[in-house]
## 1
Amino acid sequence: GAGVSQSPSNKVTEKGKDVELRCDPISGHTALYWYRQSLGQGLEFLIYFQGNSAPDKSGLPSDRFSAERTGGSVSTLTIQRTQQEDSAVYLCASSLQGRNGYTFGSGTRLTVV
Amino acid sequence: RKEVEQDPGPFNVPEGATVAFNCTYSNSASQSFFWYRQDCRKEPKLLMSVYSSGNEDGRFTAQLNRASQYISLLIRDSKLSDSATYLCVVNIPRGKLTFGQGTILTVHP
């Protein structure tokens, strides 16, 4: 597609439920990043994919968080047993080779009630 | 020490002013450098890449000093529409893209 697409744009879920967030990067982009941003805070790195592999998972906050990427394209971020502190905007970015910068999707705003 | 450090500001400047933001990074293996801007409740958008020789895009000039591990952004003739948070971003080879906390700029009439 023309840009990075994320879905859903908004998600309200009950504490304890599982959620799945989707990122569809720009066609042909090999690098894909997940970040989250709480209100008024900076971007917190979660995970990075190069193709289908994840060289750096160091940012995942707990084992309730997991992510996968298949076919070198779409990625899903799954949060199990959601907690209120998981409420944030989850942002995905992709890049062809990195040197030309990264394009962000408009994010998924997750609210855990 | 944070991997990428920025002065959070806020910077409040009048229209037409020149304003400069600084950023330092800790990983000497860093190879790619960028400035992004983020408007309130929006995703970050690439403003410009930063090259060793320095580069300019209209009213915006970016500089990189590898020896000091320092990046700067200069905005000339500030416009109201320049009000945003400016993010310094650093990438190491095959590594994660690391963001500074951002510098808040408000341009007032």
## 2
Amino acid sequence: ETGVTQSPTHLIKTRGQQVTLRCSSQSGHNTVSWYQQALGQGPQFIFQYYREEENGRGNFPPRFSGLQFPNYSSELNVNALELDDSALYLCASSLVHGSTDTQYFGPGTRLTVL
Amino acid sequence: GQNIDQPTEMTATEGAIVQINCTYQTSGFNGLFWYQQHAGEAPTFLSYNVLDGLEEKGRFSSFLSRSKGYSYLLLKELQMKDSASYLCAVRDRRGNKLTFGGGTRVLVKP
């Protein structure tokens, strides 16, 4: 167990809808990164939040947005859902400026878009 | 950008040794990570290399050669529970992004 939690576990939406996924970081960690993992592929970096600011973004459109709160928990919002957004969404927490900044993953949210 | 290559699938026998190779081409490098992922679960951290050489952790070892853009994960004394996907990931120079390979699915047979 990494201490990183995500909710909900599973979610089914239809095309065009909006979704919010949540992540609570491990105690003492100040950074949250979000990844999208399609079936049979490695995770793809969406963005990272550090001290409530976006701290790097992958190749995802602006309809993917996020927030980080003062307690370091985070949200991922996806607007105008498309079928290709169906995936496992993983968040990972880490301690920036630590010796390795190792990212520890939560259990993920499985999103299905119909 | 980053490009990470690893084999798609490997099969090995219980008690044997398996070596999973990972090659990478990067515009910046700040460490290489190996994660284990069982089907339907989150990736779990296995090892981290930032300097050349071998890091050993029990039955798992990881090796890095920065000049060759090459790493491997060695799994010894294979157990059935080691059947999983193994993900190689490179961290960029800025330190805020992991780029993952597609994962190597290891099947351990009795």
